[in-house]
Amino acid sequence: MRQVFNITGYRNCLFLKNSVRNRVVRYRYPVLAAAFAVLSGCAQQMVGVESHEMLNATLWAQSSAEYEAVTRQVYRVARANLDEALADPHWRAALEQTGDYADLPPAIVLDLDETILDNTSYEVRIIRELKKYSRASFADWCREVDAPAIPGAKEFLDYAADQNVAVFYYSARRENLRDCTARNLRALQVPFPNQSRLLLNTGTSKSEYRAMIARNYRILLLVGDNLQDFVDGSKTDPSRRRDLARSHVERWGREWIMLPNPMYGHWESSFYGFDYELPREEQLRRKNLQLHE
Ligand SMILES: [Mg+2]
């Protein structure tokens, strides 16, 4: 774990505290206000010296010009690819799409969190409390129905709907979050004609959902921020995950559109074997061990 504890600042605070105490003894009450002011300044300096491993990534996703440029760029590519896909009856995005699909109506399938919905305000809570993801705290945040759209997502989705492309959303969110998730999508005014377009985690894998959609639609694009949004078998160690992504190198930026998520995802939990119950310190220790020069 990277401690950002400022030892010099701490020593300075101790020195100031002792100095102030000596002066209080000599001059009593007139200096008490100054003493409290100095000590509260020290306290402020101490607060936040221990940072959270998600700080930089969350700042980048929440507030940087570069992140917004990337997501708009990604969705611009998606739109151009959608045009190409609509014109090509042999184009398909899902490996689960088999048989004669050329005449099926077109569809696109997108993940929600960090693909359509910006979850960074939930990550901020984790950072400020020096905690890690929990299903309960995430559910509480989802029920606030306050997630904004990822930049570029709504424009792309509206364009797809205008082209009569069916838009499906699938997510690792559980069924108990259906109502708040649907309300969040409606609040963003993205295409969402009915509940059948929202596929949540009921034990059905994303691969199985792709196969179900592919029976009735030609899936033109997959959009997500996690390898499992595209291909089955991705919940494995980091090396195998990279190999799996490389084995489909011709699909990236074409029928498979990946959004950046440096904050969390299977890329991160693969470093500690997806053991979400491990204490945060142990997760950090295992991640540190896998750095290499
Ligand atoms: Mg996601």
**How many distinct beta strands?**
5
- What is the fold named in CATH at topology level of the largest domain? Rossmann fold
Helix percentage range: 40-55%
Q: What is the CA–CA distance across the termini? A: 18 Å
How many distinct folded domains?
Answer: 2
pLDDT < 50 stretches: 1-48
Helix-and-strand structural type? alpha/beta
Could you spell the SSE succession in H and E letters?
HHHHEHHHEHEHEHEHH
Query: Overall 3D geometry?
Result: globular
Quaternary form: single chain
Number of helices: 12
Mean pLDDT: 88
Question: Topology, pairings included?
Answer:
Elements (H helix, E strand, L loop, with lengths): L6 H21 L4 H15 L8 H9 L1 H23 L18 E6 L8 H9 L6 H8 L10 H10 L3 E9 L3 H11 L9 E4 L4 H9 L3 E7 L13 H9 L9 E3 L7 H4 L10 H10 L4
Parallel strand pairs: 1-2, 1-4, 2-3, 4-5
Bound molecules: magnesium ion (MG).
Question: Could you explain the architecture of this structure?
Answer:
The chain has 293 residues and is an alpha/beta fold. The protein folds into two domains: 7-46, no CATH class; 55-289, HAD superfamily/HAD-like (Rossmann fold, 3-Layer(aba) Sandwich), CATH 3.40.50.1000. The protein has twelve helices and five strands. A five-stranded parallel sheet has the order 3-2-1-4-5, with helices on both faces. Helix 8 links the parallel strand 2 (166-174) and strand 3. The protein is globular. The model is unreliable at 1-48 (pLDDT under 50). The protein binds magnesium ion. Residues 111, 113-115, 225-226 line the site of magnesium ion.
